[in-house]
Amino acid sequence: MICLASFPELSPNPIIEIDFTGNLTYLNPAARIKFQSIEKEKLKHPILAGLLSELHNIQGNLLLREVVIGSEIFEQYVHYLSEHQLIRSYWFDITARKQAEKKLEYRAFYDTLTDLPNRNYFDENLQIALVKAKNNNNLMAVVFLDLDCFKNINDSLGHKVGDQLLKSFAQRLSSCVRNNDIISR
């Protein structure tokens, strides 16, 4: 039977304790593996940077923050242990979750065939552009383009050829507009 007191040692997630002067008082095995340079760099290390200065943000003895280290993203729960004058920090790698969220957001706003923004993106940004143009007393234009007889291309040459035509058209059109212009499908 595993004792609850052995939880930090067995946890696959990094757990770190520091005192109020920034001295490391505990690193579980996962923290020692994940943050190998932390003991040398102390508070210069990205996982501890700004932690002591953020203590005033702790409400109910708990602070939640997101920390990016290299290509990894962590959710850090910081627990203030006033009776021991310690800060215990629990780390959870949320990189995969953030990447999945980014993919979902991309799918919600971009056409997967052409990589152009889709109608959702267009609708949101059109409203923003209209308000901005009105507030700045600027003119703007919305242009709609249609590929004549595109259905005939799909029907006679197949969807692969039609898809390739759409991709080529999107690339050519993208090369003809300014960086701040929006092209949507």
TrEMBL record:
PROSITE patterns: GGDEF (PS50887). PANTHER family: DIGUANYLATE CYCLASE DGCT-RELATED, SLL0267 PROTEIN. It comes from the Bacteria. The lineage of its organism: Bacteria, Bacillati, Cyanobacteriota, Cyanophyceae, Oscillatoriophycideae. It comes from Crocosphaera watsonii WH 0401. CDD domains: GGDEF. SUPFAM superfamilies: Nucleotide cyclase. NCBIfam families: GGDEF. This is GGDEF.
